[in-house]
Amino acid sequence: MKKTFDLIYGFITQTQLYKSVFRHGYPSTDANRALIMFSNVILHLHPVRIRRGALKIKFTWCLGGLTFFFFILLAVTGVFLMFYYVPDTRRAYQNIKDLGTVIYFGTLFRSLHRWAAHAMVLSVWLHMTRVFMTGSYKPPREFNWVVGVILLVCTLLLSWTGYLLPWDQLALWAVTVGSKMAEASPLLGNAGPFGAEIGMTVENDVAFALLGGTMVGQSTLLRFYVLHCLALPLVATLFMAVHFWRIRKDGFSGPL
Amino acid sequence: MESVETSVKTKDALASRIKKAATQNLGPEDTVLVWPNLVYIELVSMVFSLAILLFLAIVSPAPLEEMASADTTPNPTKAPWYFLGLQELLVFFDPWLAGVVLPSLIIVGLVVIPYIDTSPTGKGTYNFSDRKFAVFSFSFGLALWYLLIVIGVWFRGLDWSWYWPWDNPYLHRSATAVTLVDLEVLLQSALHLPETPLLTMGRYEPTAANLLTWGIFLAYYVVGLTIPFLFLRHFYRRFGFIRYNIMMFLFLSMMGVPLKIFLRLMANIKYILVTPWFKI
Amino acid sequence: MWERLWQYPYRLGIGIFVAVVTALLTLFFIGVTAWLEQTFKKEREGK
Question: What interface predicted TM-score (ipTM) does this complex get?
Fold first, then answer.
């Protein structure tokens, strides 16, 4: 039985089709394990060898990797949700209800999306704590820490813009709380210190720019939809690329 | 010829630099191949966390309340849990402070950490013994943040009143007749200061008490900045003038938050400093 | 002024709650860091 399997496997791996896709054999030999880091686009983020100390789970708790994984999961579940959602105040709520009732796997994907979002916020916070406690932000890794803080802000903004999309009471008023705070910005908000002196009114201050109006309404929904599904993920991806690149360049800080 | 000599010299210099860098890298004995070691850890952690998320998604599906309506405001209106810390701060600080200035200070504070704490001790290892102040400040900040979120989630109910876990969450708590006073009013009555304004600057007419509160507010920072400078000079020297000032300003601001919370809770003081444009 | 302090035991309870929880959480984070530091140190000495 094994002989026939080996025969078939040997034949397939010698075909042009196979060799064009997988340029070398399965990484069961050290040579192939080194090669795959260069030939696979997802894996090429990794080095070929890594210090033994860097593998310790007790050191990193896999938090950074998990945050990235949650981001991918949110992107995948998010795309699914986007097929069934229209950012129109007259339709959004019913779309979410449809996801919960008539759409196959709708509840699963929506719940997974929501839980992955909570998990990502939590893990990004814990990851930051871990990096601080191990001093992994010290020179030469300062800039990567700054990029990390930017990613933290991106994560929170992604979470907040997504919160509005179901267009239920929780969404509307949670976002209204946030926009009231924006209105109270010093200088930029019409209700904050020195705002009125500069000429900020309810129709031209930073809250207006955020909401696309004076109240949370249709413009806000569309704005937050674009931010949540396109603009912020693009920004986050860009900064994640810098973040991972920096880790490769500076090396993994970790016990020897 | 000179050009050959210099090129040989630079080549030697370059070669010795490369060799030095290479020898500082650990040899292959201390490293392992990423495939399979790291890749397997990543795979297992992804599968494990996905399993947990699936379990949670099935057991506790995403909620959906009634459709958004601008007419009915739910009571209480709560921000998402990761912003509840800021919403809780709104009780004790004005919106521009709680929603804009303090979060900005938090973010700025986080960003400057590696430019303030540049000492190489404890790089790459968990270390508390050699970095006590840094770990303490960060832990304190984290603790405050988590505390405010916990309060916002579990201890705030109708009308944003305080509800202990054993209180009935459906019962409105009558706004207990709590009269909050500003610090300047307190000082004015305690020290019998005159009520007439000392200066007039357009809209702003500060009384003696008002100017005294300015003094107290500024003294908090000035005293806080100078005490370690005078008595813990080695601490100051470690950072240098610019870093020390930035760090102490942020540290004092962070400590000021629970301080003001306590003044509000214990002494019913509402505002430390009042001007026509802003109140702290 | 002291009457102001004790007039609302309700608020005193909240104040104690805030102080205690902040202290506990701070000690928790410091404690986790210190414990992990010791674990790694022991491992290195054990080698």
Answer: 0.87
If one counts every other C-beta atom within 10 angstroms of the C-beta of residue B253, the result is 17
Chains touching chain C through at least 3 C-beta pairs below 8 angstroms are: A, B
Distances (CA, A) of B195 to A20, B45, B208: 89, 67, 8
Q: Is A90 on the interface with B (CB under 8 A)?
A: no
Q: With beta carbons less than 8 A apart as the criterion, state whether A62 and B46 touch.
A: no
DSSP class of residue B16 equals H
| pTM of the full structure | 0.87
3-state class percentages of chain C: helix first, strand second, coil last, to nearest 5: 90, 0, 10
CB of B193 closer than 8 Å to CB of B208: yes
Chain B: give the shortest CA distance to residue C47, in Å.
13
**Which has the closest alpha carbon to B150: C17, A180, C13?**
C17
Are the beta carbons of C40 and A129 separated by less than 8 Å?
no
Q: Residues B197-230: pLDDT tens digits?
A: 887 887 788 888 888 888 999 999 999 999 988 8
d(CA A139, CA B124): 11
Asked whether residue C26 carries a pLDDT value surpassing 70, the answer given is yes
Query: Which domains does chain A show, CATH number per domain?
Result: 1-49 (no CATH), 55-250 (1.20.810.10)
Could you report the per-residue pLDDT of B17-66, keeping only the tens digit for each?
655 544 444 555 678 888 888 888 899 999 999 999 999 999 998 888 88
A255–C33 C-beta distance less than 8 A: no
Angle at which helices B102-116 and B132-154 cross, to 10°: 160
Phi/psi of residue B67, nearest 5 degrees? -65, 150
Task: Please tell me the total count of domains within chain C.
Answer: 1
CA dist B177 → B116, B187, C8 (Å): 46, 22, 10
Residue A6 pLDDT greater than 60, yes or no: yes
**Tokens (6 digits) for B245:** 């000032």
For residues B63-97, one letter each, b for 16 or more C-beta atoms within 10 angstroms of the residue's C-beta and e for the rest, the string is: ebeebbeeeeeeebbbbbbbbbbbbbbbebbbbbb
> B149, B81 in Cβ contact below 8 A?
yes
Task: Determine the pLDDT at residue A114.
Answer: 94
